[in-house]
Amino acid sequence: MCRQCENPDRPGYLARLREGVAERGWLVQGVDGEGVDPPWAYTIGLSEYGKPELVVTGLPVLVAAKLLNNLAAHSLQESPPTPGERIPLRGGPLIEAVPLAEPSAHLLFAAALYGEEISALQLVHADAQGRFPWSADHRGGQPVLGVRHGD
Length: 151
Description:
Layout: H1 10-24, E1 27-31, E2 40-44, E3 53-57, H2 61-77, E4 86-88, E5 94-99, H3 103-106, H4 108-114, E6 120-125
Parallel strand pairs: 3-6
Antiparallel strand pairs: 1-2, 2-3, 4-5, 5-6
Protein name: DUF4262 domain-containing protein
Pfam family, one: DUF4262
InterPro entries: DUF4262
């Protein structure tokens, strides 16, 4: 669990999140990996615009934050990815958007700010060989938090 999740000053942290979202439009909450649990990150603030929050698992927090910031900006300027959409990233992996089954169970601070009914998409990334976690030959620690479109 992240340090802020265990922070007894949670109301103070939520106030800081509200201020950050008001200033920037959205924020990225990183969660360091512990033991066998990989790192992950998610946006906070896209719900305010009627858009799904975005999540990435299995990437270092700074790499995930860069990806999330780029796609959050695109989501607000154009439109968010749709479930099942595959997006080739310049200089990066192919990603596929997968809707989260229970966003409020994973995006604690986004749910605290916007309610349990938030929606979210996971940006599932292919490995260096172009394989996704649902491929039998995929190697890597990237939990998928939802069900693929069409599965």
